[in-house]
Amino acid sequence: MIEPMAEEYSAENAPPLTKEQAIANLSSPDLSLRYYAAWWLGKFRVCEPIVVDALVAALEDEADRTEMGGYPLRRNAARALGKLGDHRALPGLIKCLECSDFYVREAAAQSLEMLEDIAAAPALIRLLDGGVAAAIQVPGRPHLTQPYEAVLEALGAIGATEAVPLIEPFLEHPVPRVQCAAARAMYQLTRDFSYGEYLVKMLDNSNLQLRRVALGDLGAIGYLPALDAIANAKVENSFKLIALKGLLEHQLQQESDACSVGADAIRVMNLMDSLL
Amino acid sequence: MTDTQQLIRAVAEADSPARMIAAVQKLADAKDEAAIPTLIAVFGYNNPAAAVAAVTGLTQLGEASVPQLLAQIDDYNYGARAYSIRALAAIADPRALDILLASAATDFAPSVRRAAAKGLGNLRFAKLPVSERQTAQAKALETLLFISQDADWSIRYAAVVGLEALAKNPDLQQPIQARFAEILAFDPENAIRARVQLAHQ
After folding, report:
1. Which of A 220-259 lie inside 8 A of B, CB atoms?
2. Which residues in chain B are contacts of A259 at CB distance < 8 A?
3. For A1-111, CATH number?
4. Overall pTM surpassing 0.90 (yes/no)
5. How far is CA B167 from CA A36, B98, B153, in A?
6. Helix (H, G, I), strand (E, B) or coil at A106
7. Other C-beta atoms lying within 10 Å of the C-beta of residue A134
8. Between B111, B118, B194, which is nearest A248 by CB?
9. Chains A and B: how many Cβ contacts under 8 Å?
10. Residues in A touching B158 (Cβ below 8 Å)
């Protein structure tokens, strides 16, 4: 449920910026320049205190509104702050979880996932209020009442074990991508292989998009038993490589010996080599 | 009609993805040079399993496939192009050097670039006359060193795989080891540094 167009800029098709310009543009009277600058600073990971301060201030922006009442600049500022990884953004991002704009809440949850700070747990858990029964499509909009995928993934990433009983029911949510997010979080919080296998089974789904999502989830949790299932999945090699890179990184983290790589990491790399 | 012509016809007449895969598999198994144009055409059918079977068939035919693979690279379909480059990389005939160099350095599609990078390291340079061999190896080395600094981690990964293979040529070892040492010291990705460690192991 990623906002359409959100990542469709590229460095080539937009005006070239310098760091100084991008920072200055964050307070430009031209709202489109502000919006672009917030994205640019995240994309190029300009992690300086002045940038973090400006982006945190942009989380409260009132000037840039869509006809639906959305806050485009807040969305981009929230996304950028996750990429910069500065924990001073935490209170502002947590506050964004209550924003009236779904996409601001989604961006904030995704960035809180990246910051991996357990302090965000209570606010994230509040978005699960009402459980699966409340997690329904908003009439006329292409999204559910809350950004459940992002919230579940964030709770898993930050290690919010107290949320396990609230997350588990989402394995039965009618939207398969939400089920994947729940399985991913449950695996991270319990290390129970049955949740990893849940995602492995999703690799056989007839929907290509969903197979890609499941690959991404398996990579994110570094689920090594999925190795061969990932290699054989009917998905483009690029997605498999990203998933295998996730497995590899997870494996490397577990291996303390820094001067050689272990047998499991080598198995992963041999598969990666074969997918080039 | 020869057996191969019948198998070619079966590919043309396949009316489901599964039948296409089966037909291509049979045609590939026939190991007949007459099948080459059909196998190459399969790359453009957007049927990944059939394309993989076609790559395998063309690779088994080896050098005989190379001229047509080179002549029929699809400039307008990067999916198809990646399969052509994979086949050329697997056959490892040094006549593919120029296309692998260009693809690794300048193709816009990462899948094509990765396949070319891996292929550059594995070319059988020994088949070239001595006079050309050094220049060819130097070009492969130069291109792989260049793309080992790409912003895309997967391109750097493929470059390391290519460089590892290229280091089997004794006179190229020194610059490759020097580059590997830099990657170990400075690459931000654990996965890339681990791949260099594996090359050393």
Report:
1. 234, 236-238, 241-242, 245, 248-249, 252-253, 259
2. 197
3. 1.25.10.10
4. no
5. 45, 20, 21
6. helix
7. 13
8. B194
9. 50
10. 276
List the structure tokens of A116.
């991996």
Token pair of A74 as six digits: 């807040």
A-chain CB neighbours of B110 within 8 Å are 238
Q: Provide the token pair at A181.
A: 């997010």
Identify the burial level of B70 via C-beta atoms within 10 angstroms of its C-beta, where 0-12 means exposed, 13-18 middle and 19 or more buried: middle
Are B197 and A273 inside 8 Å of each other by CB?
A: no
pLDDT of chain B, 201 residues: tens digit per residue: 678 999 999 998 999 999 999 999 999 999 999 999 999 999 999 898 999 999 999 999 999 999 999 999 998 999 999 999 999 999 999 999 999 999 999 999 999 999 999 999 999 999 999 889 999 999 999 999 999 999 999 999 999 999 999 999 888 999 999 999 999 999 999 999 999 999 988
The reply to whether B111 touches chain A by the CB within 8 Å rule is yes
CATH fold of B1-91 reads Leucine-rich Repeat Variant (1.25.10)
Q: What count of Cα atoms within 13 Å lies in the side-chain half-sphere of residue B170?
A: 0
Restricting to B residues 50-109, those with a Cβ less than 8 Å away from any Cβ of A are: none
